[in-house]
Every structure is written in C-alpha cells, then in structure tokens.
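Researcher: Can you fold this with magnesium ion in place?
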Amino acid sequence: MPDLQRVAIVDPSEATREPLRNLLLGLDSVWLEAESPRYEFFLEVVQQSQPDIAIVVMDSDHNKALHLIGQLASAMPQLAILAVSSRTDGPFILQTLRSGAREFLTQPLALEDLLTALQRIRTQRHSSPELNGFGPSASSTVIAVAGSRGGIGSTTLAVNLGSVLAQDSHNNVVLIDLDLALGDTDVSLDIMPSYTLADVAMNIDRLDMTFLRGSLIKHSTGLSLLPHPVQLEDAGLIQEEHLQRVLGLLKVTYSHVILDLSKSYRPLDFTAMQMADIVLLVAQLDLSSIRNVVRLLMAFNNLEGLADKVRVVLNRVGSDDEEITLKKAEETIGRSVFWQIPNDTRNVMSARNAGVPLIQHAPRSKACQAIVGMASALSGGQLVLNGSAAAKPEKKKSFLFF
Ligand SMILES: Nc1ncnc2c1ncn2[C@@H]1O[C@H](COP(=O)(O)OP(=O)(O)O)[C@@H](O)[C@H]1O
Ligand SMILES: [Mg+2]
C-alpha cells in the first residue's frame, strides 16, 4: 500500500469544504491532518501540523488565497501546495502557479483530477533526490488473467496470485471478477458478496472512493475483492466505461489490480487487457489450449501494444493429460513460456473446495511455491512475504523465460 499523504485544507466556504473533506476521507492513501476555515490562520496551522500537502481552495477571496500560497511556499518549500478554484482564466492560473502552487485544479473538484494530482505529487516526492530510497513505489500494476479455454486455471491463478501479492505489507491488492456470468472468485475465497460490480455500475455517476471501497470485500489474506454480479441478468449492466472509471480509481490507491477475465473475449475483456500492464495468458500442454493461444496472439497483434504485454503461463505442468511437450508448445506459439505452475491436484482442489487460497491452505505446496515465484518475478524480485514458508520460493520448480 502506498504510504500516507498527510493533507491540510483551507476553505472558508463550508459548502465546498465539506465535499472536499468527504472526498479526502474516502481515500485510503490520504490522512486529513488539519482543516481550516480561515486563510489568515492557515500558515500557523500548517507550521504546527506539518502536512505533506496543503490544499488551498481560493474562491472565497482570490487575493488572500494568492497571498497565502506565496507565504506557504516561502515558509515551507517542501510543502506541496494544491490550489483549487473555479476561476480558470490563464493569467490567474499562471499567477497561482508562480506564487508557489504545484498543482491547479478546477472547482467543482473531480475525484479523478484530485487523485491524479495527488499521484503526481507523490511521484515527485519519491523521485526527489533527498527522499530516494524511502517509502514504497507509488505505481500501480494492473494484471489481467486471461485463459485459452474453459477450466484452464485462470481463476486459480488470479485468486492465488492476488493473495500472495497481498502478503507483502507494501502491497494493497484488489481482484475484480470480470467473468461476469460464471465467475467464481467469491467461491474460491469463500466470500458471500453484499455488493458487486453491478452495484458499482448502477451507481457510476456518484461513484467515489468511499462507495467503491464499500463495495469491496477484504479477505483475511489482505486481498480485496470486487465480485461479479450475483444475478446472471445483471452481467449486461457492466460496460467498458464503467470498468475504465473503476480501474482509474483503484489504480491510485491499490498497488496491484488483478482482473480475472471471462473466456468469451467480449469488448469488456479487451478493455481490461488494454488497460492492463501485464496479461497472463493461461495455457496447458494440450492441443486445443495451445491452438487457442496461437489464435489469441494473432488477434492481439491487431491491437496496439497488446501482444507485447502477454506472458504465457503454463498451468498443470506434469499432469498425465499433457498432449505435447513444452518445446513443441513454445515452437508452435512462437514465444517462450513465462512461468510454469505444476499440476498439484490434491492441494489446488482442496484449497478450492475449502474456499481458502493456497498461501493459507497449503503454503508449501508446489503450486503455491510456483505462484510465489511468479509473484516475485512480477514484482521485480522485490516481494517481501510475511510467512516463513511462503518466503522461501522453490526457485528450481519454476522457470523464468524472457
Ligand atoms: N495447477 C493446478 N493443479 C491442479 N489443479 C488445478 C490447477 N490449476 C487449476 N486446477 C483445477 O482446475 C479447475 C479449473 O480451474 P479454474 O481456475 O476454475 O479455471 P478457469 O478459471 O480457467 O475456468 C479447478 O478445479 C482447479 O482446482
Ligand atoms: Mg474462472
């Protein structure tokens, strides 16, 4: 999870201060340190509370606000000042920025704009030389898990990868079940959903972080889940623009967003893959799966950048049902396999039946260890796990090919 940004706000108008406060209180990554209704006292408030960010809402008195921004900037050069105003003429914006504001946002404040500004401030902070090496990375990785036929192991991989990544206290991981009709991430985690993607879609106009977070269910591994709709007929409610909005919001507060896709390769699945940083394409060593990998890669080639994001993951390696060799599969698909997950029927099945992820159910199992290895590779080798069993991936069992 990203470290907290401590924020102080000043806005003499209660009518705009309250919605701003609510927006900020809904953000996991923000700690509201102080709030002031007076420009005159705000410098003192900030000097006492020492926040990382000061949000100055300027509309009550532009001149006083400009003066305050100048004072804040010279008294506390490290403070990131975020100015908010409904005045959007160029000279005014320029004057505000010249006074020392780092960001200028227009009122009424859109959540996405606020999040983007906070993200930018965070990135600047982490890239400033004196702070380098402190705090976790601020970036978010979106991983889509796609399959090359039904029952290939996408959900097993999505759920277990998510719960392994969630073991690292630096991470904040959310899984979205995009297999809208037949998804079973909730079953795999033994979760009874109260809210689902359907609620999010129906309330998309008033969606903010508080609502969105209220729709997520947190599992004891730390993994948060946004389940697929309970009613089959609600699957049609979820449109591409809903997913774009939800992903845009989640990316700011979660270090990893994992998407368990459907096997129908509908527009929503393609939107998910296009928004993803990495697409794990799950396959097995049988003819129909490998043939579909070839077909899918051909289709992905028509979409800019998509094929490059794909990593082929072989599941159930070593099962008796294998029809072709790894070498032949790699030759056929024309690329190397990124990771191999061994066949581990006893552990994978019993974890699934118990509704408990492998990292809790069978952390030493070979399937779990391979997933830990893959999670570590996807984290650039930076994964720090809490449990000792999970912290020692058996590297021999997994093969990394680039
Ligand atoms: N590595 C594995 N070893 C043994 N069984 C597995 C493995 N991965 C998945 N399975 C089993 O395969 C079945 C289908 O897996 P699932 O993840 O639901 O596939 P999908 O989501 O692609 O339809 C499940 O019963 C699961 O227990
Ligand atoms: Mg599935």
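Model: Folded with magnesium ion in place. The CA atoms of residues 99 and 396 lie 58 Å apart.
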